Amino acid sequence: MEETESLNSFHSEEERRVVLTPTEKEALLRADPSFRSVASAAYFDNYDLPCPVQVTMEKDTGERVDVVLRRNRHGDVVKEIHMFAALGEFGMPVPAVLVEPFHNDRGESEAVYSLLSGENLQKLSMRSDEDLQRAKELLVEAAIRLMNATPFIESHAVAKLMPRFTLAKELELLNDEGNPWLYEEVYRSAMAYLKPVLEKVDMPLVISNGDYQPGNFLAKDGKITGYLDFESASFQDPMMGFVKYPIYDMLPLSRTDLVETFLRKKGFSKEDFTIRLAFGCLKILFKEIPVAGGDAETQEYRGRVLKLLRESIS
């Protein structure tokens, strides 16, 4: 997890400033015997806040060192640490755990990690057209390398912590009486269309961090230097990690041939991906988008995802 000077900022310094609790400060000081005090703390400059916190620690010598305070966001920090250990054994660049999980003042798990070198691929993609293409290639490379760790992870003890999500199983989870979209014709039609299709899919699942967004991969000098965010790690379909690019319109990478490059390198067809895209639209509608109403941004989002869904099943 890193921070670089860039004109491409998402949030101001004031928005990113973090006030640490006494429990967090005490844990940070345990990370190294030479740490004397906390000099500063701020969220990384990501799309969404809150996110991991970059903390500058001052040593007895006056030297300053950056570490990462990892707070639970949408998954399990404990599981993430077990995944880091397994991936490290496999030879992948992941953060070192400096302080094992502890409970903060709200009873949530937190941990302290080392700060990996490199720039996240979102920042890299925003620098220039040349860097955008470089970020695209690196992201595909990083995702495939992670997938290649699947046999090792499946034979590792950490596999017991990883849920397995087949497409058919995930589709069934959407068929819930609490899903208001089930009363909408386009949604019901898509569910009916996808059910027999997904039941026939027998593609092997792969290990995934659950989020292939570019901020979760670091690179330096044209090489991947870090894999981040394994709170929600699981075994899932290999294409599902990329459906978020057209669904969220994740600029600027969504305007490249990122998906096509991945499909080509893995030997998947566009039709294979279109099925996953339709399913991804169903998941996002249920999870994030109201059936009606909302502000202008919500309405635009709903309209875009519905358009993608209709095109995907046409």
From TrEMBL:
Residue stretches making up the Aminoglycoside phosphotransferase domain: 61-240
Pfam families per the UniProt record, alphabetical: APH
Highest taxon of the lineage: Bacteria
InterPro entries on file: Aminoglycoside_PTrfase, Kinase-like_dom_sf
Name of the protein in question: Aminoglycoside phosphotransferase domain-containing protein
Organism, scientific name: Candidatus Sungbacteria bacterium RIFCSPHIGHO2_02_FULL_51_29
